[in-house]
Structure formats: C-alpha cells, structure tokens
Write a structure and sequence with these properties.
Layout lengths: L2 H57 E3 L2 E15 L2 E5 L7 E4 L5 E3 L4 E6 L2 H23 L2 H4 L4 H21 L5 H18 L7 H16 L6 E4 L4 E4 L19 H9 L11 E6 L4 E8 L9 E6 L5 E11 L5 E8 L4 H4 L3 E17 L4 E3 L2 E8 L2 E6 L2 E4 L3 E4 L14 E3 L2 H4 L5 E2 L2 E2 L3 H8 L1
Antiparallel strand pairs: 1-20, 2-10, 2-14, 3-9, 4-6, 5-8, 6-7, 8-9, 10-13, 11-12, 11-14, 12-13, 14-19, 15-16, 16-17, 16-20, 18-19, 21-22
Helix pairs in contact: 2-5, 2-6, 4-5
Length: about 450
C-alpha cells in the first residue's frame, strides 16, 4: 500500500471517530432532554396534586363527635328569711354550740351553752370521744356480734371504709370523715375478735372508763343556756345583712345594690356582741344575680347550680329574669329547697348554672346552608357533592352540634367530609345536586 493510501485511511479513521463522538454527545443531549421533560411532568403532577390536596383540606373538614356542657357563670347574693339569735348572758364565758351549722332546731330546744372556761368545753369533747370508743369496743366483743360474722366479709367492709376515707381526704370532702373513722374503728375491732387476733378488750375498756370518771368529776354546769324561740334551721355565721334583705324585698334589689353586697359580703360592726347566730324558718333560699345574656329560654326551668368553692350541686328553679333596660343586662332570681352548712354560712357565691351536657357531631356555622328550607351542610361523597340535613341539639357561638344517627345515612354522619365553603368548592356555581346554596352571610344568620 502506498503512503498516499495509508494517509487517506488514517484520515478516514479520524473522521469516523469524530462522528462517533458527535453522535454520542447528541444522544446524551437527547436523553438529558427526555429526562428533563419526564422530570418536569412528574414535578408538575406532584405540585398539582399537593396543591389540590391542600386546597381540599382548607375547604373541607371531617366530622367528629364533640361533647360540651352548656352553662352560665354567675356571682350572686343568697337571700333567706332570717332572724338573729341573741344571748341574754352578759358575763364572760366560752360558747359551745349544740347544733351544727344548717342543723334543724325546734322551739325551746337548746342552741348553745355558755361555760365558765374553755376547759369545760374540752372536757365534754374528750368525754364524747371516750364514749364513742367505749361503745365500739363493747359492740366488738359482744357474743351476739362475733359469733355470727364472717371475718372475710368484715375485711371487705374495712377495705371499703378505708377507700372511702382515702377518697374523702384526696377530694377534701371532710364533712363526714369523723363518722367514717369511727365506723372503721368498729369494723377493725370486730374483725380482730372474730378472727381470734384479740380475745377481747376488757383491759382497754377499763382504762377508758377510768378516764371517763376523771372527766366527769371535773364537769360543772353551764353558766347560761340559749334556747330557740322558734323552729327552723340554725347557723352560727352572721354577716350584717340579716335585717336588711329578705325574700319579700327581692323586688327592691337593684343592680347597684346587688353589686354593693357582692363587693362587701361581710358588714363589720353591725351585729351586736350578744348575737350568737341566726335561724331560718325554712330550708328555702334564693339566689339573686346580675346576668348579661339575650337568652330567656330557661325561665321556669329547673337546673343544677354548682358552687365554684365546693363543687357541690343544688337543684334550683329559675323563678324570673327581669331585664334592666341596659342591653342584655337582667336580674335573675333562682330558688332552692336544699340547705346545708355551706349555703347556711354563705351570703355571696360564685357558681355555674348547668343547662346540660350535649354530645353530637360538631359543625362550624360557616358551613351551614339551607336546601328547600332544610338546614344542613354539603359533604364530599367520592367525586360528587351531596347535601345532608342536620338534627341540631345544641348551638354554640361559632358551631352547632348535630345528633348522631349511626343507623341513618340521610343525616350528617360521623367522619363525613363537610365543605366549609360550598360555593367556592363548586367553582362559583350556586347549585349542587340540584339544590340551591344561599350566600355565606345568609347561611350564618339562618344558623343563628
């Protein structure tokens, strides 16, 4: 082969190599362009789906069960028919009450005794406790008790009594804890004898009765006794309003007077030093308070009144709600026939008037629409939109509760996806499934 042919062949090889490299680069550019197009399409789809999903989440909401307690917070003045109890004794002495606060008294019965010193009061207190323990021990070792009881049964009663005391201690409900402790003592003594852990309590009884004799020997008669001049219910607490307000004068109580009493629930220097308490003729009492609400539907209704200080509830009747002429302000009068030590000792209370507890499907007012005069909402059913009526059982400020009908698909159901803005969800259309949806403003006003 000539040198000319060799050179030509080398040049062709170089051209071929260059062409292959160019083709390879073109293929790479083509593939990169294809990948870029595919990636762009995928990214567009993802962004679109995400946007649609976020838009759907913003404009719809899954229904859930919700429980609310309808109540009205108030602060009021307790009004009773009261009369002060006076002592005629003017000398020095220590007062000892015979009746607990809120306790029943009869005409001429003893309300209090006045002793010459505190020691006499203490001696009687110790005698009362000694008598209780003696009674418990004597019953525990009596043959009529121990011969017929089952230790396991008594043990279960001891556990129940212990749990009751523990619960009362935790909840600070200590009114009856002394009686519970005494009952537990009796049960433990009976169990010890019935299970042969103790043969008896003779030695302990002998020591207690010896102490009893010591205290009895130093007792002296009271220097004065205060007797009831009428039947009723007694409390040792006075506040100075006993002669100023009564159930007959409730109509004379103004907003200003009510607020004045609330601001000063205890009037100092008004009650005389010889006053030892007061008597109510009946268990009935009234609560007068100022409220600010347009609602009047609960007049003549009976509800529970829960005191904020004790969490105790009392059944009360809403006797009247009288507007004052200043906006939604009104004077409300409640009446009750339940009396205890807390009510007897109180003049001003903070409380909640409980109208009831409601559980239903929560629906925002902004989602409520009307179709053919029926209140309801629009829900997503797959790709379609359907109108479902509400069975409203409670109305709040910005939501309502619809009764849950698990056996019916006609009403709004649990976990239905409610459209919060049906008009926007329908792309500006005023109709869905042939039903007309009112404007947002009319929907909210109608829900009210």
């Amino acid at each position: 082969m000539s040198s000319r042919d060799t050179a030509q062949s080398g040049e062709n090889s170089k051209k071929k190599l260059v062409n292959e490299r160019v083709s390879q680069r073109l293929r790479l550019i083509r593939d990169a362009f294809i990948y870029l197009i595919v990636f762009s399409l995928i990214l567009t789809i993802v962004i679109t789906q995400t946007r649609n999903s976020l838009s759907a989440d913003r404009s719809s909401e899954d229904t859930v069960l919700f429980t609310t307690r309808s109540s009205l917070s108030l602060r009021g003045v307790i009004v009773r028919d009261e009369s002060l109890v006076h002592s005629s004794y003017t000398g020095d002495g220590v007062l000892s009450y015979c009746v607990p606060d809120g306790g029943r008294i009869s005409n001429h019965s003893q309300i209090a005794r006045i002793y010459s010193s505190y020691d006499q009061v203490y001696y009687r207190y110790r005698l009362e406790k000694l008598n209780e323990e003696i009674d418990a021990l004597e019953k525990a070792q009596a043959r009529g008790t121990t011969d017929y009881v089952q230790p396991d049964f008594i043990l279960n009663q001891i556990k129940e009594s212990y749990n009751s005391i523990l619960s009362a201690t935790v909840s600070q409900s200590l009114d009856g804890i002394a009686e519970d402790k005494l009952e537990m003592l009796k049960l433990m003594c009976i169990y010890n004898v019935a299970s042969n852990a103790e043969s008896g309590y003779d030695s302990r009884l002998e020591a207690l009765k010896s102490q009893q004799s010591v205290y009895n020997a130093v007792l002296t008669n009271p220097v004065s006794v205060v007797n009831a001049v009428e039947s009723g219910y007694f409390t040792s607490v006075t506040d100075g309003y006993e002669t100023e307000i009564s159930t007959d004068s409730i109509d004379e109580l103004t907003v200003e007077r009510i607020n004045e009493i609330i601001a000063t629930p205890q009037k100092n220097g008004v009650v005389g030093s010889n006053v030892i308490g007061k008597v109510f003729s009946t268990y009935s009492w009234k609560l007068v308070c100022v409220i600010n609400t347009p609602d009047r539907y609960f007049v003549n209704g009976s509800f529970d009144l829960e005191l904020s200080s004790t969490n105790k509830s009392y059944r009360v009747l809403v006797e009247s709600i009288t507007p004052t002429g200043r906006g939604d302000e009104a004077i409300m009068v409640l009446s009750c026939d339940e009396m205890d030590a807390d009510i007897a000792a109180s003049r001003v209370v903070d409380a909640e008037l409980l109208f009831g507890e409601y559980t239903g499907i929560k629906v925002l007012r902004s989602a409520i629409r009307f179709s053919d005069g029926v209140k309801g909402v629009y829900v997503l059913e797959g790709e379609s939109i359907e109108f479902k009526p509400l069975d409203v059982i409670y109305e709040g400020d910005d939501y309502v509760l619809s009764s849950h009908h698990p056996d019916s698909k006609s009403y709004l159901g649990l976990y239905d996806r409610v459209l919060l803005d049906p008009i926007s969800s329908l792309g500006g259309s005023r109709e869905a499934d042939g039903d007309e949806a009112p404007e947002d403003g009319s929907g909210e006003d109608s829900a009210d």
